[in-house]
Amino acid sequence: MKKTTTFVCMILLLSLTACSTRQVVDKLNGSTAQRLVTLSVDQLIGELPESPLSELQNAKVWMNTHFIREDPIHTYASARMKAEIDKRHQVIWADSEKGAEKVIDVFFTSLATDQDSLGFSLPVPTVTTESNEIGRIDIVALNMYHGVSELYFYVRDNATKVVVKAERSKAHIRTDKLILPIISIPISTLD
Fold first, then answer.
1. Count of alpha carbons within 13 Å of 147, Cβ hemisphere only?
2. Can you give the three-state secondary structure of the chain, one letter per residue?
3. Which of 43, 65, 68, 164 has its CA 20 to 30 A from that of 111?
C-alpha cells in the first residue's frame, strides 16, 4: 500500500507543473479583445511626445501609415493618429504627398492582444480539431489578457529634406485574473 501511495504521489507531483505560456491572439472576436486593442491605441496616441509632432503646427501635412497587414485595426489606429495630430496642431491636410510641407510616416509595430498565464497547472489531454495543444486546469495562476499597441514615426520637411525620428512608443491595457482553487479574482479590469 505504501509503494502504491508513493507512486501515485510521484505521478501527481510530476503532473503538477509550474509554467508560463504566451499566446498572441490573431482575431479580435468579442468586446473585451476589441476594447483592449482600441483602448491601448487611444492611450498610445494620446501620450505621443510633442517633439517632433510640434513641427507639424499649422503646416500642410501628408500622413502615411504602415503595418504588416491591412486590417480594420490598422485603419482605426491611422484615423486615431490623424485625429490626434489635427487636434493638437491644427494641421492642414494635403491632397498629396508632393503638395505637403511636412510628411509623417507612422510605423505601427503592434496592434494586437496577448494572453499570458503564469502559475501552477495540471495538464489535461484534450482532443480538438483545431490544434494539438494540451489543456490545463489552473491550480494557482495569474491569467493575463493585454491589448498592446506600439509605434514609431518620422517627420520629414519636404523643403529641407530634414527627417526627424520619434522614439518608439508603447501602450498596454490589461485585464488580469488571479486563479485560485475555488475562486478567481480580477486584479485589473477595463474601465
1. 21
2. CHHHHHHHHHHHHHHCEEEEEEEEECCCCCHHHHHHHHHHHHHHHHCCCHHHHHHHCCCEEEEEEECCCCCHHHHHHHHHHHHHHHHHHCCEECCCCCCCCEEEEEEEEEEEEEEEEEEEEEEECCCCCCCCCCEEEEEEEEEEEEEEEEEEEEEEECCCCCEEECCCEEEEEEEEEEECCCCEEEEECCC
3. 164
Domain range for residue 40? 21-115+145-173
Q: Residues 71-116: pLDDT tens digits?
A: 999 999 999 999 999 999 999 999 999 999 999 999 999 999 999 9
Beta bridge partners of 165: 154
CA 89 to chain centre: 27
Q: How far apart are CA 140 and CA 61, in angstroms?
A: 53
Residue 96 placed within a domain: yes
Number of domains making up the chain: 1
The CATH number of whichever domain residue 36 belongs to comes to: 3.40.50
- Residue 16 in domain: no
In a domain, 97, yes or no: yes
Q: Which set of grid coordinates corresponds to residue 169?
A: 512608443
